[in-house]
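Here is the promised in-class demo. Please do not try to memorize the tokens; focus on the logic of going from shape to residues.
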């Protein structure tokens, strides 16, 4: 199987920036991932791209097989993951076009499996032990620094830090929910950042979210609220420079074998009961 050291999970428009793309079908103990992995080279480094919602955006956020997605990436050698995503801004100063690199996360999802270590037997008969991973700081500190620097290098001043609240979806928030999220002091709201981040941590992967604000969430503005058309429009207007930031971030991430961040030690001392890919 082809190997990559960096993974990008994002919208289906991103894999076109890879060179000499090879489509690789990966099976996992948790079923198929959202789509094939698209393997290629970016900034001289082997990269695996995975369309989070599948080709054509056919998988809603609450039905994404997050466990299969992260397992598939690790199985081809990925150890560092960049996760660009579209979010709603919960503060008026975080308007459309803002790029926020979060350092905290709040989970308000309801029905998504969010651990590999649930004591349920895998198809090969092995049984994962129950594990409680450290998650106080959900994002890789090194990856965050790299993403912030990459954005600044492209004359795009990002918001360095903030809290992403992740809702179940696929519906957008009510005004009351949005105002509640804003009153709590949270920064942006999205639908896919969890359990993506914790599953990456459980596999010892460095995970960095790059949140592009496409709208002011329903409670932060007047009018009819958020529409999917509006989200796609703003994302499309910014995808070109977001791809350039991703290119620079991939180039600047440290070599896999030199990682020494908290992500690599999250499961130190635990008997996992299963062999990771």
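The designed amino acids, position by position:
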């Amino acid at each position: 199987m082809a190997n990559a050291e960096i993974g990008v999970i994002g919208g289906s428009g991103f894999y076109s920036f890879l060179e000499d793309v090879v489509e690789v079908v990966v099976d996992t103990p948790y079923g198929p991932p959202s789509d094939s992995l698209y393997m290629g080279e970016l900034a001289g480094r082997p990269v695996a791209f995975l369309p989070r919602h599948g080709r054509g955006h056919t998988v809603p956020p609450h039905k994404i097989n997050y466990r299969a997605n992260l397992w598939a990436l690790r199985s081809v050698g990925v150890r560092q993951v960049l996760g660009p995503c579209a979010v709603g801004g919960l503060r008026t100063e975080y308007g459309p076009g803002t790029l926020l690199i979060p350092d905290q996360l709040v989970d308000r999802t309801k029905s998504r499996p969010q651990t590999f270590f649930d004591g349920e037997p895998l198809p090969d008969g092995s049984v994962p032990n129950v594990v409680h991973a450290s998650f106080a700081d959900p994002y890789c500190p090194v990856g965050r620094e790299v993403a912030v620097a990459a954005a600044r290098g492209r004359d795009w001043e990002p918001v360095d830090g903030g809290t992403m609240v992740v809702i179940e979806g696929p519906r957008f928030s009510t005004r009351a929910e949005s105002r509640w999220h804003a009153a709590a002091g949270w920064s942006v709201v999205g639908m896919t950042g969890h359990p993506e981040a914790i599953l990456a941590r459980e596999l010892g992967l460095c995970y960095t979210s790059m949140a592009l604000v496409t709208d002011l969430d329903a409670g932060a503005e007047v009018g009819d609220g958020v529409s999917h058309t509006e989200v796609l429009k703003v994302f499309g207007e910014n995808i070109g420079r977001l791809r350039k930031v991703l290119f620079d971030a991939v180039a600047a991430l440290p070599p896999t074998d030199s990682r020494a961040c908290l992500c690599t030690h999250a499961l130190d001392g635990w008997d996992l009961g299963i062999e990771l890919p």
